[in-house]
Here is the input.
Amino acid sequence: MAVVFRSRSLLPRLTRSGLRFASTGSKPLTLKERLAELIPSQIDKVKQIRADHGKKSFGPVLVDQVYGGMRGLPALIWDGSVLDAEEGIRFRGKSIPECQALLPKAPGGSEPLPEGLFWLLVTGEVPTQEQVSALSRDWAARATIPEFVEEILDRCPPTLHPMSQFSLAVTALNHDSAFARAYQEGISKKDYWQPTFDDAMDLIAKLPNIAGRIYRNVFGQGKVPAIDLEKDYSHNLATLLGFGDNEAFVELLRLYITIHSDHEGGNVSAHTGKLVGSALSDPFLAFGASLNGLAGPLHGLANQEVLSWLRKMQSKIGENASDDAVKEYVWSTLKAGQVVPGYGHAVLRKTDPRYTAQREFALKHLPNDPLFKLVGQVYNIVPNILLEAGKAKNPWPNVDAHSGVLLTHYGLTEMQFYTVLFGVSRAFGVVAQLIWDRALGAPLERPKSYSSDAIQNIFKERH
Here is the structure.
């Protein structure tokens, strides 16, 4: 889709650059209004794609793919982002550096506002500053969580993992689901997207209050402050966590949420949300399921493992260690039958651009941080060792190799909480796709499964 800036009262005009801009004197469309305009043409587009290509094949399905976690198996529609093995993620066709340049920023800030990224994921368009500010105010106005959800969180023992509490609270929001209520009242299928959109907006808006309450309950940080209706999403989240006075940390959250928001549809949290949503479970139930997948050690807990590994290395070889000492520690990790956390990716075959974005942030804001220096040292050493050891198809760092170090620098040292921040971010991509799934009438997911005996028999018969 083109980059569009629209107004209620005036038709857009096409500039030489191909971008459409609205008159500055008119009131811009809301996100829901713009989405309503886009849906009919997207329905026609999907119909045309299916008419032209519906009976064509992507290629063979290998038995190894069925046993190997469906790696590389084309099986999902996911419009918000596409992951290329060589260049990394693109959000609606735009790279991370392009998003950093194009998306609106907070006054005095240099990182993109996640509100703009969500607009891009939903519409394929870059919003105006005014549209992003309106979205910030809308989310702030929706941010209050029900009293019974507060009580659920307050009654959780502090020993219950923050992600378990997060999933519990998000699932409980289903109590007030607009979609669940509309479905019970017999809403037309063509209108499913509207209450889904409302639930999606409520969900994203309430996540900072949930995350802040969990953080303060578990780690003893006192009473949760109020949402500021005039501040952006990341600033409010930072305040709820106790870091709102640190503008650099607020900027970090803006970058963090943006780059963690979506990573196409095949990862565990994204696919889980889409799968559960296909049963017409509302966005709260669907995203609650996503969070349970994100909590797994092979998905959202990876940044904790990176930070733990770096700290163990630092405690053993000391700060400002030589390259030889780092190499020796890396080899000892591999020889012990362990992996080097934060390196390698199921799809990527180059350095993760999300890692690069965080590295550039660190070079700007914390170039002399000892752990950041160690991260850079590891980056220069580990890929060659992994190649030499034959341990990875992709020996380059992924997003998890850096994020924990940045959070630690600003004082957010509670590693168990890091996946909650990942979860707040991932909601953007999951619910954007849920909205479109309901708008386009996506069916219930029901892939075919086979037993091992059935596979043997299939190929026995072919011989």
Remarks:
- The first helix runs from residue 31 to 53.
- Residues 54 and 111 are 41 Å apart (CA to CA).
- Strands lie at 13-14, 20-21, 81-84, 88-91.
- The chain has a mean pLDDT of 91.
